[in-house]
């Protein structure tokens, strides 16, 4: 990917994010996570030079390789993929800024146990399957608040910072919007319990997600395209 494409892609996304967030409020700040899972460390570097600072990966091994290759850059690394229990220790050792994909109480308990053993803490979001899609991970909306509170109570080494959702995988805009609204409503309930991030919106639907209250978007294909 060349520098020109990186700058153009980033500018286009920032312009759209600005438009969408200002329609809510000038105080509504949206953080952009560049999802580099289909891209090389070189591409990440090019986007870093264009001004992007936060990147996300969905495989522990890829996160390890890219973050180690780019160790000299002050990049904020996020983990956004399904976390297998046998990869927990590897992920902890990479000190990610935020894990978006804590998708069950069971996984939280296991993660907490391994964090305790290493005497470390880790920031995470609870993933909610707000579209009720069988192919997606996450807790069901009706259980989310209760599970969030249980994690706070039972997992002192996990610093819960909010929620994450993937929008409904359909064409109908109303269905996608409803899935985002479901997550936003849960987020609002969790703000008194310390929730700060409502991570939702990808390349195809981030403007809709921001209109529904997202304050953190995860864009891959639209940022890394040639
Ligand atoms: C791949 C991925 C994204 C980015 O998707 P694009 O459509 O390429 O923007 C965002 N979130 C998660 C969890 C992903 O796996």
UniProtKB/TrEMBL annotation:
Cofactor(s) listed in the protein's UniProt record: pyridoxal 5'-phosphate
SUPFAM superfamilies assigned: PLP-binding barrel
Transmembrane region(s): none
Gene3D superfamilies: Alanine racemase
Single Gene Ontology MF annotation: pyridoxal phosphate binding
Domain Alanine racemase N-terminal stretches: 43-224
Source species, domain of life: Bacteria
Biological function: Pyridoxal 5'-phosphate (PLP)-binding protein, which is involved in PLP homeostasis.
Record-given protein name: Pyridoxal phosphate homeostasis protein
Lineage of the species this protein comes from: Bacteria, Pseudomonadati, Campylobacterota, Epsilonproteobacteria, Campylobacterales
